[in-house]
UniProtKB/TrEMBL annotation, chains A, B, C, D:
Main EC class the enzyme belongs to: lyase
Gene source species: Pseudobdellovibrio exovorus JSS
Protein name stated in the entry: Chorismate synthase
EC number: 4.2.3.5
GO biological process: amino acid biosynthetic process; aromatic amino acid family biosynthetic process; chorismate biosynthetic process
Sequence positions that bind NADP(+): 48
Length: 340, 340, 340, 340
């Protein structure tokens, strides 16, 4: 079965325990001839890495990717692409105590119920470190998409951290460099407030939730497959597969619930649709958001361990990676829509 | 490919155009020996049927299901189960005009972009009538689950219609018969207000959105498959594959975003988790909600056609069906978790 | 799971019990815009039909196909294509005795072991009637292939019945009309001998095996997917999924075993490769054979029932259908080989 | 897509180019709690390794397996198991010339046609070295099967090399240690003749084909899934996915073609069925054979390179591995056959 696989055509298989030998990914279904951009791969990994700032965990992930197969002379071969990242920092003794008492909010007990035999060190495979595989695969998806559709762009950012909520519009967001803001909340004042909040939280063993919002522009019309791989359905599946997520909405999202039809349905290009109608992309910009709960490492656990007081800033590149994966899958899939 | 399939183990394939010969479903992966409850099948179909009340479309769907294969002597054979429903009422002349101008908010244009050759009559396969296949398959999933886990219960209901929002708690909801309320909003006063609102909307060519909430109790712990078929991920995929949906949340949902970790993570049984932690069911009750936008048949289209001013009441059995499908899939899948 | 499905891109799901309501197929992954050739569908079904001659079973299959979905205005819609054939002749009383004693050589007992609850009437789904679904789906695969590759041709024929073995070469075979020979063994003398042999067998309750050989010409080079969906691997899987088959070989086949490499490997176009090298088609004609054991209905069973003394003549269109299915799958799949 | 994957439940994904960084496998769907037998893994790899004797290629494969994920404290975790083997001996300069002229009988040209961009060094992924991944995965399948079904045994052996054909019966084969015979043809005289033949061939740049036969005993009845994952269909697919294979037969195999039904169908336990009836295992011993053509490295290529004059001896553990994979897949799959 494909519990650890994502995608139908451009398919990734993720493997590796947090404190095992290595994490990695195998990508099946990437066509031959994609120019492999190693710099992009490393850059994306750096963006996901812990220890980037005062508001993220100090866990030291060296994270040097090794491309094991599927790439030759700078281009993909059409064969499976395996990329591996060794686990450099395996301070598993920090986690010995977990073996005996499950951490509140974590998955220790549910995994134990399911599998009986588990790797208790740092959550094993339920650790956030698993998202590294998504960033690796998402980077290859990005290479594929950008070669086929050079105009296609994806931009994720923190749109809310705790009560601090961004109200900037899409125009402005496309102009800023999200990474210049420590919390990836691209607004100077809100970012500063968020930094203060999270630094205090780190000391106090407190944690906060937030929202990652994503814009995509120049997406081709007609992506998505009715009726069970609608673009919105695959996006929702992708996003809710990320740890700590609790909600997904696109376009007018949950607010659509309160609208009158005559106001909502103004024209076929309206932003309320979030770029998706009938489950298929319309060619208008995509707009969707994912909600994250407060990280579950709180109180003493948080102080001792090496955890983020808020996962949202580091979730931004993960959400981007999953977006590229959905895009790559459907861009290739659309080659099969019509006889010619 | 499996664009029209849902599920990994208990798998349904949906087929049929709204104004074609018939709609139907093939279920692969249903084990042999499930007692087939034809009454349940018909009852569930009746609940989804249009024309049930003054607030739903008058389209006449006879909807007599024919079990074509996979069932013998009242029990499933372990072979594919095909169930067919003829399209009795094919007034396609009503839809002739659609061929030339896409209806606002509908999928007519995105489907045309994708497939070039489309069945323009009543949306073809992008019609809400497609959800019939989900109810058929969901009913078989329900038969399977209830035979294996007699205590397992699923209850969906309208929790919001336009601005009318329910605040009753789970205890109360389990006691009521949702179908006694025309809008399936199980609260006498709110239901009456909603009926009035929707009857007026029908006359005025107006439409409204709303929310369907679902509770599940006595669900086994450990359902869901890390990391890409987490229970929440498959639920989100299932729900967002339904037409007109715009958001999904579970447990504390979007509200989790604003919480402090120390308040959020009280204990492993907390309702904020919505019965899912680490992507796996905890054994606590499930609680999730799906948002629907206002139906896109408004103004002149709505007056002429036979459409619902609010899809939420009729979406309730569809959400239930998708929930049973996710449950059946993961109940069977969990047989593969451990060596014994 | 996909026990009853064949194909990865162009995918068929087969359903239906021999003496149930109907047999049928759902095809997922057929692109939009394929011109639907109803005549071809009926013609192919006629070729598979029992009761065509003195050497086939007298079972009366009316076999009128109903295209339930996926086709509109003479072309495919890109949505699932369901085709249904009612079971007209359900003389199940003939089979009542089977409930108690499994028929030698049949699958009655193995199915019973597996599923416990089985449809004992005429083998249920293990009946040869199941191949009807393959012919339905194969016909659509043929429509697709012939529209994309008008030169592509498939020709299957009986190359051996009992000891009667054909030695004609490919050139000659392409010229004859296989269906003009009752046993589909396209050689006047051998065909006559085979007819006599099988007519006697029918009276005597005897049965015989044989071989179906297939030539394909003008097949594009590069079809097949390394390493587990090599063209030869998928062909073997397709052919061995047909009931009563016991062997598969292509090119020099089993004779290759005895060859010296220096004689075998003469040039890249050699017929010994059967049009497949490295698992991929070379562009040279395909050539493969499938062996069938004697039908298991012998002695009293055969005299009473309505069975073929040799399944090979009627297997010819089934082998062709499976060949078209493998071709359609890989022709579409090859769209994903390269970035452009 | 799953071009490089095998299995539906117990699923392996193979990756790696012959002269790239490493070869490896990811196994998805192995349940938690399988005792991991590292010795068995290494032993099986040793059996496949080149350079074992005077009749195999001298290529030096160090082949030290690294278990990267999915195993902890000596048992599987239910998470993906990644096993990696570095490519120690990358004398790719030997292969530089291949870039310009495709080797007769190899897949160089068909891969080039398909993918345009290929790794020309030693066949890249079309090299026989790819079978290493099968042996890795097959070993884990064996661990799983033997823990669940301790009596289950698989024995493959060379049953023919060139014209040298074994006629020993199953009883005798089960008693011998196949690996005591250099050619794995377990008959002293024939083995000696085969050794002489192959040593001469090595000098002369000649090559030969042969047959690998496999017996399986104590296999449970009812394995296999109708109708497209019949046990015979999956076996055929598995075997024909191995390079250089040209035929597959089971039970009476191709000889069945010539039999009379009244002689063939003696009783339900007859050896002619090869342990499979109706596509499902009967519980009787399995018996099937795979034909291999002469290796394509002949004449000057063979003298210069490091290749086997006959692949059959080294194919034996690969056929065994594929057999274990099919068994593991269907043993797990059968958990889903019935409601209880």
């Amino acid at each position: 079965m494909s519990a650890n696989s994502f995608g139908q055509i451009f398919k990734m298989i993720s493997f590796g325990e947090s404190h095992g030998v290595a994490l990695g990914v195998v990508i099946e279904g990437c066509p031959a001839g994609v120019v492999f951009d190693q710099d992009l791969l490393v850059r994306n990994m750096q963006r996901r890495r812990p220890g980037q700032s005062s508001v993220t965990t100090a866990r030291n992930e060296a994270d040097a990717p090794e491309v094991v197969s599927g790439v030759f002379d700078g281009k993909t071969l059409g064969t499976p692409i395996c990329i591996l990242v060794r686990n450099a920092d395996q301070r598993s003794q920090d986690y010995e105590s977990i073996q005996h008492s499950p951490r509140i909010g974590h998955a220790d007990d549910t995994w134990k119920t399911k599998f009986q035999h588990v790797d208790h060190r740092g959550g094993g495979r339920s650790s956030g470190r698993e998202t590294l595989a998504r960033v690796l695969a998402g980077s290859v998806a990005q290479m594929l998409c950008q070669q086929l559709l050079p105009q296609l762009q994806v931009k994720s950012f923190s749109s809310q951290i705790a009560h601090l909520q961004l109200t900037e519009n899409a125009e402005q967001i496309w102009k800023v460099n999200v990474d210049e803001y420590i919390t990836r909340l691209p607004h100077e004042k809100l970012n500063n407030e968020a930094v203060q909040l999270l630094e205090s939280a780190k000391v106090a063993g407190e944690s906060y939730g937030g929202t990652v919002r994503t814009f995509v522009k120049n997406v081709p019309a007609g992506l998505g497959q009715p009726v069970f791989h609608k673009f919105k359905s695959d996006l929702a599946s992708a996003m809710l597969s990320i740890g700590a997520t609790t909600s997904f909405e696109f376009g007018a999202g949950h607010e659509a619930v309160r609208s009158k039809g005559t106001e909502f349905h103004q024209d076929l290009q309206s932003a309320v649709y979030g770029g998706i109608r009938g489950g298929l992309t319309t060619g208008e910009p995509l707009d969707f958001s994912v909600g994250f709960k407060p990280t579950s490492s709180i109180k003493d656990t948080a102080k001792k361990g090496r955890h983020d007081p808020c996962i949202v800033p580091r979730a931004v590149p993960v959400v981007e990676a999953m977006t590229w994966l959905v895009l790559a899958d459907h861009v290739l899939w659309s080659r099969l829509d019509r006889i010619r």
